[in-house]
Design goal:
alpha/beta; 7-stranded mixed β-sheet; globular
Length: about 250
């Protein structure tokens, strides 16, 4: 296992019980889950954490791997004395949740993997983006993010909320973002997801241009104990449809 680094972790909700561990998407931080935490805090123990290289977690030199990011999660659970957890991840965090259930099935109770895929994008595009942010910073990525993350209607109707998310992206350390791009460039779970034995809920965004409903259907076809929920949203469905997303969590967990 990798040597542990300093990771930013936040607790809320109940003090005891099996926690829901929230895993953020590329270029965001643990605050992307604040609406779910507010809606579910009376019923669940919850742990939010910033992925390595994001938010207030430490940045180590890349490249990273999905396996490395999952080891960080297991180190965190060990430090907190948590033997087993529910996991909810979106996009990169959703892929991490799937990989956790492959590598560490004894630590996983159930997972919700939202707006994700067994393979996201292609290697060359991720490596180009990693090089771009190392050379020019986060500005070029921030410029096109709203159109990838949200529908045009949400962008028009929720300007303040969109700006909060874009501010998270802008503050993401360039090296942390680039190193996670490199992790995604190599991440391919297509031949592994069939081994997942824990219950899985796949959440897809009907209008998601990044990880499509077809990507979600592929996962459901491969994972025996899985189901698919489709929300009228783009890529960050938990932000665009927070109430419906939280209801899915509550029913499934």
């Amino acid at each position: 296992m990798n040597l542990p680094i300093q990771l930013h972790v936040q607790h809320s909700g109940l003090e005891k019980g099996t926690p829901i561990v929230f895993l953020n998407s590329l270029g965001t931080d643990l605050n992307m889950w604040n609406q779910q935490v507010a809606q579910l805090s009376s019923s669940y123990r919850m742990i939010q954490m910033d992925t390595r290289g994001h938010g207030q977690s430490a940045v180590s030199r890349g490249p990273y791997s999905i396996d490395l990011l999952c080891e960080d999660v297991i180190h965190t659970l060990d430090a907190l004395g948590v033997p087993k957890a529910y996991f909810c991840g979106i996009s990169m965090g959703g892929m991490m949740a799937l990989n956790l259930s492959i590598l560490y099935p004894s630590r996983v109770e159930k997972i919700v993997a939202a707006n994700t895929a067994a393979i996201i994008g292609n290697e060359s595009a991720w490596l180009e983006r990693a090089n771009l942010v190392r050379m020019l910073g986060m500005g070029p990525v921030v410029a096109g993010a709203a159109g990838r993350w949200f529908t045009s209607q949400f962008n028009n109707d929720h300007v303040d909320q969109v700006n909060v998310m874009l501010a998270q992206l802008a503050k993401t350390p360039s090296e942390g973002y680039a190193a996670c791009c490199e992790a995604l460039s190599k991440a391919d779970l297509r031949e592994k997801v069939a081994s997942i034995s824990v219950p899985v809920c796949i959440v897809a965004g009907e209008l998601d241009p990044v990880t499509t409903v077809i990507d979600g259907q592929f996962l459901v076809e491969k994972i025996s104990s899985s189901r698919l929920e489709v929300l009228p949203a783009s890529h960050l469905s938990n932000v665009e449809n927070p109430q419906q997303f939280s209801e899915i969590l509550s029913r499934f967990f």
